[in-house]
Write the structure tokens for this entry.
Amino acid sequence: MIIAVLGGTGDQGLGIALRFVQSGEEVIIGSRKADKADKAVEELKNLLEDEDLSNLSGLSNVDATSKADIVILTVPILAQKPTLDSVKEHVKGKIFIDATVPLQSNIGGTPMTYFSLWEGSAAERTANILKGTDAKVVSAFNNISSSSLMRFKEEIDCDCLISSDHADAKKTVIELIEKIPGVKCVDAGSLEQARTVERITALLIGLNIRYKTHYGGLRITGLPEK
Ligand SMILES: NC(=O)c1ccc[n+]([C@@H]2O[C@H](COP(=O)([O-])OP(=O)(O)OC[C@H]3O[C@@H](n4cnc5c(N)ncnc54)[C@H](OP(=O)(O)O)[C@@H]3O)[C@@H](O)[C@H]2O)c1
């Protein structure tokens, strides 16, 4: 499967692209500008100098989306709608992973506070904007920091909570993400659960600041082994 990471030139998207490339997936970094995507590809090639990265390329967000089977949105919340509008005609029937979180830092405040959206969560807003395309929206990656993703020699000590109204898409995404060393996926339920999951990101940012780290994450205990 081909994975496109929209806004993959930024912190979170680059980290996600890195981890999927390492796990052998074909990854396209998307950007508003194709040459910026190419620079991000070079950045990862320099970082992972000993690894074969023939499965990594860069394109515009639109071209990346049209080529991909799975699309991941990793842009600041204020860029959510324009980015989705620009790729909407190419997402028909595809799995669409939303990793965005509305934090007050996007509107001049603190990253430790969430701001509420009319739709309930960023993931539900994405589903609303993509309505009519048959895209299967899945919320994931909200609680894994870009620092943990970029620390590519280390396992990620964090669970990934997955919310979606599409059971088949959720299963595919869980299988994909669990290829990243250390990550365990937890089925959080319907897409509406993203309202809670996204808010945990603000909490984790506060904890990371308070404890002076970049790697604090979430582990859910007591669930039966799969
Ligand atoms: N960073 C984290 O640790 C983390 C953790 C969990 C969730 N998240 C969420 O993931 C998303 C991305 O976070 P990030 O830290 O990676 O953000 P970022 O580095 O600030 O931005 C990511 C990319 O989005 C594109 N972008 C920026 N401003 C834009 C605009 N006005 N219009 C259209 N595109 C724009 C840019 O790509 P191009 O210029 O190449 O188009 C940029 O490289 C956010 O919603 C954040 O809340 C982040």
In short: The chain has a mean pLDDT of 97. The pocket of NAP is lined by residues 7, 9-13, 31-32, 36, 74-79, 82-83, 99-101, 103, 142, 145-146, 201 (CB under 6 Å). Residues 22 and 180 are 8 Å apart (CA to CA).
